[in-house]
From TrEMBL:
Protein name: Uncharacterized protein
Organism taxonomic ancestry: Bacteria, Pseudomonadati, Pseudomonadota, Betaproteobacteria, Burkholderiales
CDD domains per the UniProt record, alphabetical: PDC1_MCP_like
Native source species: Comamonas kerstersii
Domain of life according to the entry: Bacteria
Amino acid sequence: MKSFPPETMVLSGNTDRETANAMMRQVLDSNPGIVSTWTIWEPNGFDGRDAEYANTHAHDATGRFVPYWIQDGKGGHSTAAIVDYDKENYYLLPKRTGKIAMQEPYVYNYGGREILQTAVTVPIIVNGKFLGVAGVSVPLSSLQKMVEDISIYETGYASLGHLRG
């Protein structure tokens, strides 16, 4: 899966929100196995300019950079601001632990299609400070296909399972 390095953007001082959005769109376009990508930044964590973006597209009321790119189910995609992220494990778990988090499978509606998926979220940490998260949603069917394509020596195989069955 191709990705973008948000930490590198911050460290280099190249924190342009349009560039970051273009990178997320590219991740979505380049990886047919994912259905959405997003990032959620701490207040002023991306570029220190949240106030300039208050109540604008793909930002919350305070201007936090919280874009959510999603497949529309018709071959295109759209973007919006993520809502209620401060109540959800896809944000809270990596923030609390500083580690990658994978969510319990859940059903999400994409343009009239219900898809069983999981979310994988990574913390964005720069110089030991938590600045936000970046994540993708992956249908379980895509994960299953990846696992089926794994070849371990001549007779080995891989399988996809869950702790609860």
